[in-house]
Design a protein that fits this description.
single chain; about 90 residues; mainly alpha; 4 helices; about 0% strand
Length: about 90
């Protein structure tokens, strides 16, 4: 949360203004809350990250399989260029 967002939120509830010390305290509380939420959701985050990795692995494997088909053709210069172009997509 930015300083301005914090002030805007606080001003919605309190119109007397806030000191820098109060703002710093609110930032500490907000950071602790973010960490608590991350820790509470760590197993789900880990599961989602593993799923994303499995999808990335599947895409990589399919890309390589397509490139190998082009490698197997190699009847003209274009087939080799196609295989190289397919593999290069994985480097992005």
């Amino acid at each position: 949360m930015t300083r301005n967002e914090l002030l805007e939120l606080a001003n919605a509830f309190y119109t007397g203004g806030f000191t820098e010390r109060e703002i710093a305290f609110a930032r500490v509380i907000a950071a602790a809350e973010r960490e608590r939420i991350k820790a509470a959701n760590a197993p789900e985050i880990e599961r989602i990250n593993a799923y994303i990795k499995s999808l990335e692995d599947a895409v990589r494997d399919e890309r390589e399989a397509c490139a190998k088909v082009c490698d197997g053709l190699q009847e003209n210069w274009a087939d080799a260029r196609f295989a190289a172009a397919i593999r290069a997509r994985g480097d992005k």
